[in-house]
Amino acid sequence: EDMDISKQRAGFVAFVGAPNAGKSTAINHMVGTKVSIVSPKVQTTRTRVLGIMMKEETQIIFVDTPGIFAPKRRLDRAMVAAAWGGAADADHIVVLVDAKRGICNETQTIINTLKEQKRKAILILNKIDLVDKGTLLTLTEKLNGEEIFTDTFMVSALKGDGLDYFVDFIAQKLPQGPWLFPEDQVSDMPERLLAAEITREQLYLKLRQELPYSTTVETETWEEKKDGSIKIEQIIYVARDGQKKIILGKGGQQIKAIGANARKQLEEIMECRVHLFLFVKVRDKWSDDPERYNYWGLDY
Ligand code: GDP
Ligand code: K
Ligand code: MG
Q1: What is the Cα–Cα distance from 261 to 93, expressed in whole angstroms?
Q2: Gap between the Cα atoms of 168 and 185, Å rounded
Q3: Are strands 92-98 and 121-126 parallel, antiparallel or unpaired?
Q4: Are 45 and 22 in contact, with CB atoms under 8 Å apart?
Q5: For each successive 10 residues of the chain (300 residues), what is the average pLDDT?
Q6: CA of 44 to the centre of ligand 3 (A)
Q7: Ligand 2: centre distance to CA 68 (Å)
Q8: What's the 18 CA to ligand 1 centre distance in angstroms?
Q9: I need a labelling partner for 243 at 20 to 30 A (CA). Which of 111, 218, 223, 249 fits?
Q10: Domain 5-173 belongs to what topology?
Q11: Which among 38, 49, 104, 128 is the best mutation to test ligand 1's pocket, defined by most ligand atoms within 8 Å of the CB?
Q12: Residue 25 alpha carbon, nearest atom of ligand 1
């Protein structure tokens, strides 16, 4: 069947917000599969991730960004730069606000920055499952007083409530033009990188607060077997020997559990059997290693 290219629309919609506002949760829900990992910890999303969906003749390309926060270390600075970089080129900017948390410093910084840039944005109040109507209305009024928001949506990304209204709305707003990715593509992240991210997500979910930030995961081998399964070997890099012990756990129980959960997730996403092998290695000072930044698509 011939495609009528003249009817096509496509565009970029960047999600910015404080860490943990629910940006990755919202984008995963709209795209319909996990393109960006989620955890209750800040800095889970380290680089810019595209989540791509089709709404009839419109290709909506969501740009998930690391949260905006006050950067201290080099890695932090690179993440915040990636977040603003993702927003700068987008057709529309969405500011996602955790309605329970309200207007935190990070959200105020985002609003001030957009004002300076004279950019308008769409407001999404997320986590409405956690607040009452009164709180929500007060917050909406306060935020709209900033005069940078053209439209406001109220959603629960976790439950998926309200996001379809936003999708309908944004699809109409995107410019006419040919699709920028194949119709069935959901992300720009290579499978090897996504597979490493899935394991990193499990580390975030399972381990103590301070550990994951000094941890990185890399997919070393990726082998498609004749029986349709995939063999994946990954290395978890840590900064210190003590961290290695924590990840392995007593008798290797911890890494076993991490591997089992990651494998389950991968099998769901890849829709085939996965054999996942995890190794833990100590590497000093990885967060100052230019090669690692390159690997994540960040500028050193
Ligand atoms: P990000 O840092 O902005 O990408 O936020 P994440 O998507 O990683 O979510 C941070 C945490 O908030 C996770 O534990 C999510 O499960 C949780 N979360 C996201 N959206 C909602 C929501 O609508 N309601 C509730 N109750 N929790 C949410
Ligand atoms: K998070
Ligand atoms: Mg995120």
Answers
A1: 34
A2: 20
A3: parallel
A4: no
A5: 80 94 96 87 80 96 86 76 83 97 95 92 98 97 97 98 98 96 88 92 83 82 92 92 90 95 93 94 72 64
A6: 6
A7: 12
A8: 11
A9: 223
A10: Rossmann fold (3.40.50)
A11: 38
A12: 7
